[in-house]
């Protein structure tokens, strides 16, 4: 695992946005599609802002980009203020030239009895595009990646999961009160994430410092799902100085 420490969130975000742009352009130059695995939440927001700016100012095109998002609350309507579908449209997709038929997100409106089929199809779609070239990740205070909470096995695939109480508590500001925070989510599994050709995990701010330290120092365990990333041979961890405080 390569650990990169930047002074500020904005420096780290710029670096990651440039890595994404380089991946898109090199796939484009060879006439290939570029398959990106995307995250939502506070962590990648600045990255998406940089990508939009590169689209506007440098002609970065997303016409050859295919995306798979990590997760979505369940149940969740795409119009909902807190849905990840809405987050992606507002923070990225509506501002770039991506073809919406190349955008894939776990569907929070699927009937409970069809969830399993949906999740299997999601896995198959990733495979049929040749796998994820670059997967972007944030990390939760529980050590989750996607919504793979502690206890998620290394062979897990896309599935319906329940959210950890800490994760639900962290989501209260968006939803107004704890009762309004969904109890479940659809998420890519640990195995799905680990199959990506390249992974960049990011963490910003002092509130992430303890889990960053545990992720890097603990034994590799499903109790800290992000620790599995240490077994990936092309994974970088990008931190700002505050998130890196306990590992320096
Ligand atoms: C979001 C996701 C989550 C977040 C994590 C950190 O798609 O998969 O794992 O990356 O909960 O959230 P923020 O970035 O809001 O601190």
TrEMBL record:
InterPro entries in UniProt: Glc/Gal-6P_isomerase, GlcN6P_deaminase-like, Glucosamine6P_isomerase, NagB/RpiA_transferase-like
Q: What is this protein called?
A: Glucosamine-6-phosphate deaminase
Known EC number(s)?
A: 3.5.99.6
What is one Pfam family matched by this protein? Glucosamine_iso
Molecular functions per Gene Ontology: glucosamine-6-phosphate deaminase activity
Tell me the ranges covered by the Glucosamine/galactosamine-6-phosphate isomerase domain, including all copies: 14-232
Please give the organism. Chryseolinea lacunae
**Which terms are listed as keywords in the entry?**
Hydrolase
Highest taxon of the source? Bacteria
| NCBIfam families assigned | nagB
